[in-house]
Amino acid sequence: MITDDDKAFLNSFEQCSLGSKCWNHAAHIRMAWLVLQQESSFESALERIRQGIKRFNAVNNSIGYHETITVAFARLIDARRIPNQSWQTFFEKNSDLFEKNCLEKFYSPELLSSARDIFLEPDRSPLPLSVNKMVLSVEEAAILFCNIQIRPRNSASIKQLIPFVKSNEIQENTVSVTFPKNVREELQSFVAAERLCCSSLVWDILDEDKNIVLKVAGNKEQAAVVFAWFEE
Hints:
The chain is of the alpha+beta class. It is 50% helix and 11% strand. A 4-stranded antiparallel beta sheet has the order 1-2-4-3, with helices on one face. Strand 3 (202-208) and strand 4 (211-217) form a beta hairpin. Helix 2 (25-38) packs across helix 4. The longest helix has 18 residues, at 42-59. The chain starts with a helix and ends with a helix. Residues 132-146 have low confidence and may be disordered.
């Protein structure tokens, strides 16, 4: 859900009228999130983010553009964002992205300092796949099927949850599974474990009246796989 305030912020950035003192790390994240929410593909969003930062830097006499940091954060944001989510909700649920050393989980300082001009994949932990990336490389496909197709269907935790499924729905790239509230602890344990191995998916547990709803967002192929997890 993009508000008028969001639109005004993005417009001021793209028109280079945003004050340079306002152009901090949080502003970078907000701008990238807004562009990713608007564009139809990750590739077009990333190019718009790149050109926007370079143009803003040129107007403000800054030489701070870093290709690997830009791409890495775009991929992290894209993997976690949810359609129709507000900026405030994204901000509150992803506080780690706003920490100074966020990328240290993925990159060693040595590699990151050498990757300013061209994008390099991390040397510590892999970055998540793009939510909107529909064409996968052989390596990415192998990671996807290993992480989200084989493991969960064989895990004891999901077998315990399946009998309690009240409804299972899929809309484009998001799956919504409804459970009674008395399985909250089991559901939280399941989500905590799956987040570690399925970092390309966005996980959320919501309260709705007498039920709790598990929402899992990914690309359309990922959503179809997750939907199948909870089918008898």
